[in-house]
Amino acid sequence: MPPVKPMLAKSVAKIPAGMLYEAKWDGFRAVIHRDGAQTVIGSRTGKPLTRYFPEVVTQLEAQLPQRCVVDGEIILVRHDHLDFDALTERIHPADSRVRLLAEQTPASFVAFDLLALDERSLMAEPQRDRRAALEEVFAAVAPPLYLAPATLDAAEAQRWFEQFEGAGLDGVIAKPLDAVYAPDQRVMFKIKHERTADCVVAGYREHKSGPIVGSLLLGLYDDTGRLQHVGVCASFPMKRRAELVEELAPLRMAPGDGHPWAEWADEEAQASSRMPGATSRWTGTKDLSWVPLRPERVIEVAYDHMQGDRFRHTTQFRRWRPDREPAGCTYGQLDEPVRYDLAQILGSA
Length: 349
Known about the structure:
CATH 2.40.50.140; 5-stranded mixed beta sheet; 20 strands; D-amino Acid Aminotransferase, Chain A, domain 1; 6-stranded mixed beta sheet; alpha+beta; 349 residues
């Protein structure tokens, strides 16, 4: 019965040998519970996503067995590429907007594990047996439902790691063949890309525990010379967070001093440029205020991949770069993955 928290993965540097390998999808993790006319889509945290994806629910009820629990990912495909930004727009409080977006930007579901079928729980079964049962259940499904491709060949998994990023995927997942399904436990392994970039530090948000640095706000200059907010760096121990407040104090700016993101609260400015503080349906009433800094310091961060013109995930601190000029921190330094057709991964789009 819902909620069931999904099994998780821990990061490793290389693809381990002797496992079941799948691509790492960049969407919303979803555990599907179907019991006849009742369907619940549970998120990674256990909260239901059901109301936001009515078109997915319709397909699940049309194609899945009457009673089952399936682990997978809700994705959104646009132009043969995963589009996470468009997927996040599907989380909307207004039912009329939800229905409209379901027609305009319909989502899909990719299945990669089977937790229960009919009256039987499969969670204590080994991964190899759950995969075999999943393949049988999904043998006849049609888009927008998909069975996640899987392989036992580590060399093929390495090819996936190198190629699939061009379709918006996020790396490779390795699953021990004998592993049982362990909710909320990091039993699997994830292998993700890591690159570095030099960014301008243009502000920071305070930590939830008090007036210390929670995250540094990062910027890159676009082709027009405008500084765009591209993400955050937040990987600091508590002692270092306090030290950063002192170090960055000389760079603090007052409102109206000409900061490149001074219009962050203006909706029109947010529409034409990426700035911190934009309203998020995920954070709700969370305080998104920040401390502006003169954009004079450069930091090198590690990141996995880009989502459009920003870092997809929180970056990791590598080092300060006093030898770099902020003006040289442009999008031109970023590695562009070779485009790859998502339809070749899913079989059809």
